Amino acid sequence: MKKSEFIDYVTDKTGESAKQTGKFYDAFWKGIEEQLKKGDEVCLTGVGTFRIKKRPARKGINPRSKAQITIPAKKVVVFKPSQSFADRIND
Asked: How far apart are CA 61 and CA 73, in angstroms?
């Protein structure tokens, strides 16, 4: 589902305008992004938790040249669904 399809879905379910729903969507994800940048977890009750995980630098191999390379350290976003959310998906 693309962003526009999601906004259309929420607009249909809530009766809000697409413009208002789009603003909410953007603010929602911006809020999550800001909290993660600060190093905080974002826990959405009944849905799950977003957090940042640090991946250390590691050795790798360039598949084309077969030369060894160093893959730099980075941060990745991890989402762990709540048990109730996982149960609803699996029913």
From this structure: 16
Amino acid letter, 38: K
Section 64-88 average pLDDT: 96
Taken in order 7, 1, 53, 58, is the CA torsion positive or negative? Answer: negative
DSSP conformational letter for 45: T
Dump pLDDT digits (tens) for 24-63: 999 999 999 999 999 999 999 999 999 999 999 999 999 9
Strands 74-81 and 48-55, by their bridges, are: antiparallel
DSSP 46: T
State the number of CA atoms in the 13 A half-sphere of 60 facing the CB. Answer: 10
DSSP H or E run through 60: strand 58-61
pTM for the complete prediction? 0.78
Count the Cβ atoms, other than its own, within 10 Å of residue 21.
20
